[in-house]
């Protein structure tokens, strides 16, 4: 089995965190490849930045998908995930979708621990779009400058742990979701140190992607996730144009 994880941000240091956690989480024999967005921002906090990340992800997916059994959008918020599910012939999942699916199996209410205050509104919208809004106990986030996006969990591990503890004790969370690729692997580091189950998006996405491949459920040919209809287009990268032609 071959899985492609696409980092919609331009941060190579974050891609390394993604790769490390994905390889630790994958089943024996599963091959992991991680690609970094060729354009965009260092990390996504806003709806507009998500739009940029979604297009970068679409471009990489169109160029490389034929070599893989499943695709993972490796950023919390899952930029472009549902659109890619229309266009690609293989299963697609993302860090948020997979983490919420894992949390759903571990408890009733969950809290998200995030790396910035600005990110919260967009995260709430994403959670609502997946139908989990009523189970969201809280979103708690760091409120301090980030010197290096690739070193967030090293520099702020104690603050993130305190936020998670407060989410359990004050917000009633049954499960903690550590949000974002910059926190990939932190759940493994905090194992046994928090009073509730802790979910990591990267490990969840890898395991759920493996399950989707194994289920062999097939690709939608009708309905809202059928491939986009063919129509005239202009100015698209060749790989995206070919994908729309279903070649």
Overall, the morphology is: globular
- How many helices? The count is 10
| CATH fold annotation of the largest domain | Rossmann fold
Main sheet makeup: 4 strands, parallel
Provide the structure class.
alpha/beta
Q: N- to C-terminal separation? A: 22 Å
Order of helices and strands: EHEHEHEHEHEHHEHEHH
Portion of residues within helices: 40-55%
User: Rg from C-alpha positions?
Assistant: 17 Å
Can you tell me the number of structural domains?
Answer: 2
**Count of extended strands:** 8
Strand numbers in spatial order across the main sheet: 2-1-3-4
CATH domain class of the largest domain: Alpha Beta
Q: Uncertain regions: pLDDT < 50 for 5+ in a row?
A: none
Strand content: 5-15%
What does this structure look like?
- The two termini are 22 Å apart.
- The protein is globular.
- The chain has helices spanning 12-25, 47-64, 81-87, 95-104, 120-129, 152-155, 157-171, 186-189, 201-215, 238-244, and strands spanning 2-7, 31-36, 70-73, 92-94, 110-114, 136-141, 175-178, 198-200.
- The model has no long low-confidence stretch (mean pLDDT 95).
- The relative contact order is 0.18.
- The longest helix has 18 residues, at 47-64.
- By secondary structure, the chain is an alpha/beta fold.
- Helix 1 packs across helix 9 (201-215), helix 2 (47-64) packs across helix 10 and helix 4 (95-104) crosses helix 9.
- The chain has two domains: 2-96 and 204-244, Rossmann fold, CATH 3.40.50.12500; 108-200, Rossmann fold (3-Layer(aba) Sandwich).
- Helix 5 (120-129) links the parallel strand 5 (110-114) and strand 6.
- The strands form two sheets. A four-stranded parallel β-sheet has the order 2-1-3-4, sandwiched between helices. Strands 6-5-7-8 form a four-stranded parallel β-sheet, with helices on both faces.
């Amino acid at each position: 089995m071959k899985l492609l994880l696409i980092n919609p941000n331009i941060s190579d240091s974050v891609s390394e965190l993604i790769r490390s956690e994905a390889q630790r989480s994958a089943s024996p024999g599963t091959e992991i490849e991680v690609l970094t967005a060729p354009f965009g921002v260092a990390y996504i906090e806003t709806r507009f930045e998500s739009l940029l990340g979604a297009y970068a992800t679409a471009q990489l997916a169109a160029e490389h998908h034929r070599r893989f059994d499943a695709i993972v959008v490796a950023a919390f918020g899952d930029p472009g995930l549902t659109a890619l599910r229309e266009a690609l012939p293989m299963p697609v999942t993302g860090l948020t979708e997979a983490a919420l699916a894992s949390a759903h199996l571990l408890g009733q209410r969950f809290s998200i621990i995030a790396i910035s205050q600005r990110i919260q509104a967009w995260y709430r919208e994403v959670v609502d779009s997946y139908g989990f809004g009523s189970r969201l106990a809280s979103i708690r986030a760091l409120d301090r400058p980030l010197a290096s996006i690739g070193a967030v969990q090293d520099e702020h591990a104690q603050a993130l742990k305190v936020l998670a503890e407060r989410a359990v004790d004050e917000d009633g969370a049954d499960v903690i979701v550590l949000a974002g690729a910059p926190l990939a692997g932190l759940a493994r580091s905090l194992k046994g140190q928090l009073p509730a189950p802790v979910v990591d998006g990267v490990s969840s996405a890898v395991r759920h992607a493996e399950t989707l491949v194994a289920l062999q459920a097939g690709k939608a040919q009708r309905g809202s996730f059928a491939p986009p209809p063919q129509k005239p287009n202009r100015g698209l990268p060749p790989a995206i144009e070919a994908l729309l032609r279903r070649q």
